[in-house]
Fold these 3 entries.
Entry 1:
Amino acid sequence: MNRLQGKRAVVTGGAQGIGAAIARRLADEGALVAILDLSTQKAGAVLPAPHIGVACDVSDTASVDAAFAQVADQLGGIDILVNNAGIGSAPGDGMAEFYAGQAARAGGDETAFADQTLHCADEGWSKVLSITLDGAFRCSRAAVRMMASQGAGGSIINIGSTAALAGNGPVPYVTAKAAVLGMTRAMARELAPRGVRVNAVNPGATETPIYAPLPEEVKAAVAADSVMKRLARPEEVAGAVAYLASEDASFATGSTINVNGGAWFS
């Protein structure tokens, strides 16, 4: 299929996992893809030329603006943005204390609690939101400026999370992803007159490098949360993104597709 022939796409956090699968799928659909990640080398290894890898720290405005300037120079513009970059945890966010309390309670200590909030320091909270939420805004802003100057519309797809609906995850991460979904709806309303569609995809637990080191019993428990009793494959998330990026979704904006195997219905 060549639904994206002639389109120029940017995928953030595209060097591995879901991001890499999205980049490959958009390229397979005919798009010219710029993969943004912290390492130019890793980003550039995902796809061969003429696709490009660009170093970008989405938590830094100057880095984002420089990366999009490079995209404009090398690709000539942008038609599709996929905001995939994000982190689930950061030092000082209280997750170490959460896991310790969880283990103690599972061991029979009823005085122990799996707390994160009361241990979460400002720097841990801010780091997760700066990358996962603020990074999506910074990249969207840069993309919209380019799309507006081109005057030809475009498509923005934000990668959310089932955790934003169910609340099962680290508090800063769940908060950031829930805010990403709100940002999706607000931007969809604002940007419709410019012909820019803004949608989101909510993956459930997915077979990525993050899950690889987990014990098999933990993976099994996570998989059991879905009615399909397995983890998603990155390619399955990428398929939903490709649909939203294409003209097949020309009347979809402010929408969210859940790709979670039935772990959460909405």
Entry 2:
Amino acid sequence: MANNYDVVILGGGMGGYVAALRASQLGLKTALVEKEKIGGTCLHRGCIPSKALLKSAEVFQLAKSANNFGIDIPSAKLNFSKVQNEKDKIVKQLYEGLLHLTKKGEIDIFEGKGRLLGPSIFSPLSGAVSVELNENKAHETLVPKHLVIATGAKPRSLPSIPYDGQYVLSSDDALQLQELPKSMIIVGGGAIGIEWASMMSDFGVEVTILEAAHQILPEEDEEISNAMTSHLKKKGIRIVTNVNVVSHQIENENVTVQYESDLIQAEITADKLLISIGREAIIEDIGLENTEINFENKYIETNEYYQTAESHIYAIGDCIGGVQLAHVAAREGIIAIEHIAGLNPEPLQENQIVKCVYSNPEIASVGLTERDAKTDNYHIKVGKIPFRTNGKALINRESDGFVKIIADAKTDDIIGVHLFGYNVTEMISEAALAKVLDATPWEISQTIHPHPSMSEILGEAALAVDGLQLHF
């Protein structure tokens, strides 16, 4: 017997469950299919657990430097088992809250592996979902008027260095470490690699980063990348760029990586090797061959409302490529559901997407980098203010950092905002709102920022765009 729904969502990560909650709000009969636990990568293997570990690492460093605040702590000791337990408690609390929300929304959850069916006795259209339930391996068939594919992505591996979960780790594996290694090699200097490098170093692990590009964080503004490089090196982290990883060996409970950099061959040995070179779509064995869905570079192809080549089937989140961030998947899910409901939502504007790196210090940005603005032939003007001019930054003993605002010299519109420093992921939303409202630096400068506060730096940087800064 088939179960009929207005919307079935395949994948219960952030994009999927947010889509389900929005569909429920709009009165659509909704089912959510998830082979593991709803919450997906972000809640269980990504955003939340990694940021919990990062916070513990930050507090450990704070405790060690408490004398800067006039507080003497004889010795700060790290209890990594308790760090992991506290992380797991946070994940559990959020998971239980999510279960409550889906129950409140009367969303039917099917725990099991879902697979798309072609046209059949259940439906003349492809897109019905056969679910093999985890509990008893029985099958349920769900027949939706609309299907949303939200199967996410998984860590990409190096073909020559497969994951083994013991010495060669994905970010998923690293979250389950029961004890800290003495040393770690991280292949990949993007956002995830930098977060892990920062965290491990703050926990006292010797870290080396191997990055293929000429700089770490190659998609960030060059000044941001340079500042992070300098800060990580001060922590004692070794950074090697222009790297081509050739091979590896595991022996004597260590892993050795052979690589080439600037035509020089070298090798390095550590306790653990973390591969962090991006993520790839999870689209295998979900029945896509039973549909007319198209692909581009191994991602599902959609239009601006996330419809696939079959208009009743939508796809959102990491499985469609683009900007692979949890908050982007959530917004895509809302747009897809509102389009299904006929609400004519505004398409997502990529230049309004906030990007964050939760290292210590943090990075946050929205809009174009200075390099990209020049490539796009903008005539720009730039305002930049360092943290050391700000009273709250000095009070926090966090004076390393800056705010940089890039504006169009012709129209005065804000093109990009880039922040580097303590707690900047909590400061970026003002800039993101300015982008949504197509604001100018003058409008940010006219906003009355509380004193003392870190947010004052944004107002000062906005003034600096026209050389009108007051405190620098």
Entry 3:
Amino acid sequence: MNFCKKNLKRFITCAFLPISLALFGLAHAQDVNRKAAPTSVTGADNKIRNIDGVAAVVNTGYITRKEIDDRVAALQKQGVKAPDAAEFRKAVLERLIIEKIQMQNAEQEGIKVTNKDLDRIIGDIAAKNKLSYAEFRSKVNASGTSFERYKESLREDVLLTRYREREVDARIKISDAEIDNFIAERARVISGKGAAPRSAAPGAGGGPEEIDVAQIFIPVDPGAGVGTQAEAKKKAEALLVAASGDVDFMQLGEIAAKENPKIKFQELGYRTPDRLPQIFYEAVRNLGSGQTAKVVLKSPAGFHVLKVLDRRTMIAGGAPQQEAPPLEVASSTPQAITIIQTNSRHILLRLRSGLTDQEAERRLQGFRDQIRTKTADFGELAKKFSEDGSAAAGGELGWMSPGDLVPEFEQAMNRLQIGEVSNPVKSEFGWHLIQVTDRRDGQLTVEKQRQFARANIRERKYEQAFQDWIRELRDSATVKILNAEDGATSTR
């Protein structure tokens, strides 16, 4: 499990203790069931079926129904909503299968996390939260479990993370041409020329961009009743939850279509924006390769779950080009770029179950009023209320360059004068209250530009490489689903 997989600031340190304890229920559920289930199953199918609680056999191991129960409970405790309990349970089982396969492979390849490694990691987690090792141990014990059990769960999470990173990183290839293109485009944006809209943007080869979109489609007759519409939407939302995890998108569609022949899944192939349905393009225009649309799309024909499989540029002659040559602005000798850097701080209220947009806006507006009337200090409010790793530092994010922050945040920040406090701003991470504390002229050296470009290109490519790897793992494994629908305590 990667605790810092995504954050507002790409280089910001996560608040490890709250996150690790919040996710502990999930790790603990895995830990309990890994210990409860034997590592291998032998004998005929009828023997396996007689083992009480077995939901699926995965290679030489198996997953219990209690393991599914525990994972579902842990996810619900974290605020994950399940529109349809049965579909959600199937999606959870699929995640557990993928994790089981990864754990088996990692153990076979001799990947280990030593006690010394584990103590160092826990020490880092404690230090980032300004706790000693002993204080951190007490926090874990206070959460309702033993520290040793927590350590073993953490060990398995770290082992899986190392295995995934090793396998996926080896698949990601980044060329110098791609880095040059990225730097050139960023220089164009910083200089104020901006990038052309996607619908009209010619690629470096003179041709337009093409987007490869896949969809899982649940058809609904326009005249269908409210109940039928609601049922189809529930199914689509459950598939969206599953698609946001480690499950291969096309494989997920295949499974859904087998269960319900009315459900269709397809890869639309590479299309220019004008050849995509307008509602599809609006939903995916800002998505990178491997990203899934954040919401279910409703059309007159039914409900759609969309994913961008790839983006590419066409050469003027018509041949596709994955790695375009450097843009004209990058053909000259690379130089350091002068940029305006902004120092800001923020208060973040994360998106979660039980907190409506209206309530988040109301709370942040109240903080803003207190700051403007000087009855409260921004930094003190951030320390007390912000749900971000920067809270301990009063919400300070440090010096940011253009492109370092998510667009919604950066656009609002750029409109502020020094000392000014924004209105509440919503991003994919939650609701923010932003204050700019200073600005300065800075320079990005050529080496820094290339490091930044490589990191961003890798981030774009990682998701697709990860999904390809997951698909290969799943296809190469022997999996037999036995009884996933019932809970562990259900009557057989």
